[in-house]
Amino acid sequence: MGTRVISFYEQFECLATKCPNTCCRGWRISIDNETRERYEKEEGAEGFRLKATMTFGEDKEVRRFFGRCANETKEGLCRLQLKGREELMPEICRIYPRRSIRIGDDEEVTFELSCPMTARLFLENMSDIRMVDYEGDEIVPLWIQHKFNEKHYDDILAIRDKVIDYINSDAGISELMSNLYYYYRKLHSHVMAQDIDIKTVPIMGHVPDKEEYKYTFYSFAIIDRIIMNDLKDGRFSFQDALYDFSKSYNKIFGKMTAAQADDFFNDKCEEIINKYPKLHDKYKAYLAYYTYQMLYSSYEYVTFYKEYLLGNVYLMLIMTSDVVDFVNGKDMDDMERQIKNLNNIEKRLRHNLSIKKNISHRLEEEFIKIKEGYKF
Predict the structure, then answer these.
(1) Pairing between strand 98-103 and 143-145?
(2) Dist. CA 81–CA 89, nearest whole Å
(3) How far is Cα 278 from Cα 97, in angstroms, rounded to an integer?
(4) Number of Cβ atoms within 10 Å of the Cβ of 92
(5) In this structure, are strands 2-6 and 64-65 parallel, antiparallel, or unpaired?
(6) pLDDT bucket at 176, cuts 50 / 70 / 90
(7) Distance between CA atoms of 354 and 267, rounded to whole angstroms?
(8) What is the C-alpha to C-alpha distance for residues 240 and 116, in angstroms, rounded to an integer?
(9) Residue 180: which of 283, 33, 252 has the closest Cα?
(10) For residue 53, which phi and psi values (nearest 5 degrees)?
(11) Three-class SS of residue 99?
(12) Bridge partners of residue 144, in order along the sequence
């Protein structure tokens, strides 16, 4: 079996009590069947306590109290891990922040950027985002794709190599977002029709006029609703890590029309990128990182088109957080602020299934059906 890991994999070290965040708060933590069986077999006071921490219903989750896991200590650490009972932690907790997928005899491991340490490593290594061979200890896969088709697997890897080469070219981020959209749309059509070898589909099959290359891949008519309805949690401002961002965003964009917001965003992105070229590097690195994860995990269900559209939402929100900071006069070279913005957006959007579902539905109704004329 061949294992590939993200290039900065072996630099990771959990910050534990020094972490500015905690893995035990703000998540819906599913309890896998094997862990559930261990809970049922556990005896005594610990067994009673573990059973009490499970939610009712068929799909078990760890109970949360004001957004906190029932096993979180006052130091923000996992009680089970501290007791040396890691086998009682749900599988997702034992593996996080690693994202590990096995297909056939191959396994790929990246990180979830919702962890402050992995967000830091990404930003520190964004000039060298790639997969490398790994010969260390076995890494338990979180997802295993049991159905293996060698040709389809080779096609996915070839497509990914092609996309990564394009991202690493001199193309700007606005050009990348636009041309990759047309590329994935064509791929999706050919996969559904099964009419040609998808490896032969060129990325540059549609090249719009230069003035069409804008940073607003989505109109702010869509982005605004995502920020104010999906990203912002108005119920508990003290729990919402992105409350300040959404509040500042609304002060800047709240009185603009969608067209005015689009023009303002494009102008500010151009200004920011000219003044801080490293931010442009960050956007391209994020797109590459997302591509590595997205295409590999899309192997079984061929969902890369819709997943790419979601990726552009995440990217535009990262860019929007930079625009808000820039307008508010924040230090754009502040690494700690960059880390906080990145891991909070990832945690709030990419790893909250209900919010991801809401955004997917919004894109289907307000982008795909309007732009493409059909529904998935």
Answers:
(1) parallel
(2) 7
(3) 25
(4) 17
(5) unpaired
(6) very high
(7) 33
(8) 16
(9) 283
(10) -85, -5
(11) strand
(12) 102
- pLDDT score for 300: 64
pTM (whole model) above 0.85: yes
Band the pLDDT of 39: cuts 50, 70, 90: confident
**Mean local confidence (pLDDT), 49-66:** 81
Residues 6 or more apart in contact with residue 341 via CB below 8 angstroms: 245, 318, 321, 322, 325
Q: Kindly write down the DSSP assignment for every residue of 222-234, as one continuous string.
A: HHHHIIIIII---
Which of the pair, 209 or 150, is modelled with greater confidence? 150
Where b means 16+ CB within 10 Å and e means fewer, 137-175 reads eebebbeebeeeeeeebebbbebbeebbebbeeebebbb
Tell me: pLDDT of 374 over 80.
no
Q: How many CB atoms lie within 10 A of CB 104?
A: 16
CA distance 49 to 71: 10
Domain spans of the chain, in order of start:
24-94, 152-372
Q: Give the count of beta carbons closer than 10 Å to the beta carbon of residue 286.
A: 24
Quickly tell me which residue has 């997943």 as its tokens: 307
**62: DSSP letter:** B
According to DSSP, residue 25 is labeled B
Joined together, the tokens standing for residue 348 give 């709030």
How long is the chain? Answer: 376
For 53-190, list the strands marked E by DSSP.
Answer: 64-65, 68-69, 98-103, 106-111, 131-134, 143-145
